[in-house]
């Protein structure tokens, strides 16, 4: 066993130290007392009442009664796996992040894939966005890349997140329907918040029903920053590109699977890893120089926009391999806690107003979901680098901190933890210059809700277009309120008038009133060939 331990990477070793092998062991209570009978409660006489004294019964039942924790408020349905990441070449020109320097080094990772709106027991193949969250256990601390399988998002400002989720979850009175996008509240939100139009098209495309987690792209969505050792920063977008390519189900398959095998994606992931067909994804980055921040006719801080890959190519910089299934779903997949704010030196944020709100939300929700401030001590969430600070106590504290002081600076104890300078690996935020009036107002540079939606629509093949129309017919066709159905047609008329006319034909409403199609028409057939760069002045 010692030999096996030596061969495990740092995270596996750490997890191994928390696992228990029950084989051949005698049963005990939680206090370590050997149990003589686990089948019968303690009774006053063979046919008499159970008595209070039965500590074994009470402990067993109480633990069972408390087995569940709240499901995630979004992304409740998920599946996880362990693996490792290796960079292809040193990235020091772009970022000082330690795990992106040495091609021979394997950084342990844990990935959780998810749907967004369904509850924990909902079917895998529902039409929805998919989460693709990766935890890198680096030597400099944890880096979480909490992404989705679609490169953009529904909304521009975190303030709207509770609204878009309330609109997409089952209706509050009757808790139906479960189908994420097939009901009045979702489409009511869409027609009243047209910034959603671009994302809605992606979700109604084949991207909304992936064939397998192994055949799905991932995107960090927001614009982040890479910062190198010299302090030079550049904008970066993160991508995951599956080695198996991107493949989708067709809607009829997705519907049948939801009934016949609601665990379809979970089973596929598990079986592939079990059979050693390890899922692989390349990490890609799009890099933009700071001086090009305003070179495009969209705002790079607007999360409803992607960066056209023709203008800013995706550079593949490393590979993720998922090679190990979990030992225990609850301990690992359910208790894992990702947070966009978990970064390492060399990776920083931007002022994307959706990202800024996420930086608050994840820790906040995990404080209640995982029962207090010590969930970083749960084995799956533990950093492999040492955690040293003056934070103390709280529910479920595992660490036993020694010594008389828990404050800094102190003169009583000479081993109190000291901060590190930037040179010594201390995280220093990028010193972006910020200057402005305190206002509650959307930037006018976020006003264009349709141009990229039109590009996306025009990049689809005829078959892909037909799938989108069919999806509109199914999803919007289920909307009971005719006015909302009509307004869907008017909103998507801004994307493309033919699209709007085709939608109208299948949902019992009139074709669009005006000619429409105010979105810019793209001549090129593929998203990757789209150009929206401003022409040089
Ligand atoms: C999960 C909030 C936007 C990807 C969650 C959770 C919350 C949340 C509260 C549950 C976390 C937990 O219980 O551990 C928000 C807010 C957003 C936002 C407030 C916008 C303001 C996004 C975006 C993406 C994303 C744009 C993709 C880039 C994910 C993923 C998970 C998640 C993948 C599941 C993580 C897991 O598997 O545990 N989000 N989210 N979210 N979010 Fe977001």
Describe this entry's structure for a reader.
Its cofactor is heme. It is an enzyme of class 1 (oxidoreductase). The chain has about 525 residues and is of the alpha+beta class. It contains 14 helices and ten strands. Strands 1, 2, 3, 4, 5, 6, 7, 8, 9 and 10 form a ten-stranded antiparallel sheet that branches. A hairpin with a 5-residue loop joins strand 6 (about 225) and strand 7. Helix 4 (about 160-170) packs antiparallel against helix 5, helix 6 (about 195-205) runs parallel beside helix 11 and helix 13 packs antiparallel against helix 14 (about 495-505).
Q: What is the helix fraction of residues, given as a range?
A: 25-40%
Percent of residues in beta strands: 5-15%
Shape: globular
Unique bound compounds: protoporphyrin IX containing FE
In N-to-C order, the SSE pattern is: HHHEEEEHHHEEEHHEEHEHHHHH
What's the rounded overall pLDDT mean? 94
**Through-space gap between termini:** 68 Å
The number of distinct helices, counting runs of at least 4 residues, comes to: 14
Rg, please? Answer: 26 Å
- Stretches with pLDDT under 50, minimum 5 residues: 518-532
Number of strand segments: 10
What would you call the structural class?
A: alpha+beta
Cross-link (3'-histidyl-3-tyrosine (His-Tyr)): 339-362
Keywords: Heme, Hydrogen peroxide, Iron, Metal-binding, Oxidoreductase, Peroxidase
Active site: 75, 148
Protein name: Catalase
